[in-house]
Structures are given as C-alpha cells and as structure tokens.
Amino acid sequence: MRRPFKIRHEFVEFIPKGREWGVLYVSIPYATAVHSCFCGCGIKVVTPISPVGWQLIYDGETVSLFPSIGSWAFPCRSHYFIKRDTVVWAGSMSEDEVAWGRARDRAARETHFDGQPGLASEAMDEAAKSKRKKDFWSWLGGRR
C-alpha cells in the first residue's frame, strides 16, 4: 500500500480548468470539491458535498472528506481518504463490494430526496445476499 502524503486545499468559487496536482479545490457556493486523482493519473475527481454525498470538514486549518474516494470507474481504481489535508490510501474493493456501496449510496439518495427507499435498497439487499452465498460456498470449500 502507498504511503500517506500531504496535499493542500484551496477554497475557490469556480474550479480552475488547469488543476494543479496535489491540490483539493473546494467550492462552497457550488458544494463541490474537485482534484486530479491523487494516484497521479490526472483524471478529474468530482466529489459533490451534500447530506447524501461527501461530507466536508474544515477545522480552520485543514480539510477532510468523508467517505473515502473510490475511483472505480477509472483505469487506476484508486481508493483513498482525505484526512486533515493528507491522502491516506485504502485497500482495493471487490466488484461485489463496489456494487453494494453504489446501491447503498443510491438508497441513501432516494430516501433523502423521496422520503422512502426504492429499487436501490432492493439492489443492495440482493448484493448482500449474493455476497453471503459466495462467502458460504467459499467457507464450505475451504473446510474440505
């Protein structure tokens, strides 16, 4: 796993077209944080700040984003946290774990905006059942 490293944050109204690597641009008016992927691939990473998106914490000196940033659609598949202006690398996730996380996020958005969970929560339940079945058969296979 990669070592943590320091970045800097910059509060801006508009995200600059020419992003500097190692900088997290935060636009409060547009409730968005943007950076070039911290793996070095240069792909633009957009993190919407909202009750059902990323949470931004500014402690007067540093910035943190929660939850982690998983670039599953990018070739690099980077996964990291931004804690107090530091990139902390996280482990990779399986396709099942990514699918479950995406379904959880959709369910949270549906609940937040519509007041009740819809199809996304059903997909999350199906993903969890599928994972349990695979775990059971893996466990059984390992017991022979």
What is the global morphology? Answer: globular
> Rg from C-alpha positions?
18 Å
Total helices: the number is 2
Strand content: 25-35%
Number of E-state strands: 9
Instruction: Report low-confidence residues grouped into runs of 5 or more.
Output: none
First-last Cα distance: 33 Å
| Secondary-structure element pattern, one letter each | EEEEEEEEEHH
Write the layout of secondary structure elements.
Elements: E1 5-6, E2 8-11, E3 23-27, E4 32-36, E5 44-48, E6 55-58, E7 63-70, E8 79-83, E9 86-89, H1 95-114, H2 119-142
Parallel strand pairs: 2-3
Antiparallel strand pairs: 1-9, 3-4, 4-5, 6-7, 7-8, 8-9
Describe the structure.
The chain has 144 residues and is α+β, with helices and mostly antiparallel strands. It folds into two domains: 5-89, no CATH class; 95-142. It is built from two helices and nine strands, in the order βββββββββαα. It has helices at 95-114, 119-142; strands at residues 5-6, 8-11, 23-27, 32-36, 44-48, 55-58, 63-70, 79-83, 86-89. The chain has a five-stranded antiparallel β-sheet with strand order 1-9-8-7-6, with no helix packed on it. Strands 2-3-4-5 form a four-stranded mixed β-sheet, with no helix packed on it. A hairpin with a 4-residue loop joins strand 6 (55-58) and strand 7. The longest helix has 24 residues, at 119-142.
